[in-house]
Amino acid sequence: MSTQPGPTAPDAAAPDAAALDAADPLAHLRERYVGSETPLVYFDGNSLGRPLRVTAERLTTFVEAEWGGRLIRGWDESWMELPLVVGDEIAAACLGAAPGQTTVGDSTTVLLYKALRAACALRPGRHEVVLCRDDFPTDRYVAASVARELGLTLRWVEVDPAAGVSTEDVAAQLSGDTAVVLLSHVAYRSAWLADAEAITRAAHDVGAVVLWDLSHSVGSVPLALDEWGVDLAVGCTYKYLGGGPGSPAFVYAAQRHHHVLDQPVTGWMGHADPFAMGPDWAPAPGIRRMISGTPPVVGMLALRDTVATIAEVGMTAVRAKSVSLTSYAIELADALLAPLGARVASPRDPARRGGHVTVDHPAMREVVARLWERDVIPDYRDPGGLRVGLAPLSTSFAEVEAGMRAAAEVLASS
């Protein structure tokens, strides 16, 4: 799927950006974002999303009315329940999950650790974790740490970095000793979109538990965690969910596991009675037991605005815009960058592609650095990948065209 067609004349295959923007049913949302009125081209929405203008108002109101006005009373009035409230908002708008199965708090890394330990505890007596060799480093590092702690073996799925894991790849590594399958739904490098439903089913067929990292799919790709039978999932909120730098991650755990869910970071906020201050830890009922420490209240505010916007338009419309944006970026890459020796290193089939596109060339590290100097902000990923992250709610087709033309100009002069 990463094969490159022969070079075409510039603009031969690329439709008109103005016409695409005029026909875009989500185009009106762009003006809601800070900075959308500037000529800056932002191709890194899959690393850090733009903020909504309304978020500035929310933060001001919070400081003046809630924090400043209610002070410590805020905990009793709303803050204690906020991780569960926001978790349910994310679940309803983005995850395809019923209420009571998702909570917000901690970083993605910490929640990944907690969820993986909890997943392993669901399958005592099994000794293997299946994961992808080309997955995001944190996933691999956390898995290695848990394997050392519990005496487990890691079984690696080897993949083409320009593609990603298939159901067949995973099935080949499964056995009666598989405790957990840990995979990213969308590959951070290539944007390969894994078949979560089929892989989950294959893992369940051998009695294993599945933990999905949704960081590059939530808010970009429709999810149906309950329907797919997913056991656990984690994801960050500062990419397509617009939570801002360092905003807290979320964790999902299917209700059928709650009565035995055992996670290792047993803080007071996950206690059945936090204010009893008792000598021993007793887990809270339901998903609350995945909470450890004091909820990051301020860090949850911005993401609520983006989640509300997603709920307003629906994930079907978001996905349609995402597919159109990435398809347009590929067309421009073929027309403008392929003649310069670059190649698309993402799936060409939109059914197998998430919300970003990677274009490879040996000079891309230098190209990205020079683009940043021109206020064109893509991402770089080894080996030689210019990563174009397109946020469906805030990115215009004109922005895509301007950025790809700039990339071609810089690459031509490299």
Salient structural properties:
414 residues; alpha/beta; Aspartate Aminotransferase, domain 1; Aspartate Aminotransferase, domain 2; seven-stranded mixed sheet; four-stranded antiparallel sheet; 13 helices; globular; PyrdxlP-dep_Trfase_small
Overview of the structural elements:
- By secondary structure, this protein is an alpha/beta fold.
- It folds into two domains: 134 residues, Alpha-Beta Complex (Aspartate Aminotransferase, domain 1); 234 residues, Type I PLP-dependent aspartate aminotransferase-like (Major domain) (Aspartate Aminotransferase, domain 2, 3-Layer(aba) Sandwich).
- The protein is 38% helix and 13% strand.
- The strands form three sheets. The chain has a seven-stranded mixed beta sheet, sandwiched between helices.
- Strand 5, helix 8 and strand 6 form a beta-alpha-beta unit.
- The longest helix has 23 residues.
- The two termini are 28 Å apart.
- The relative contact order is 0.18.
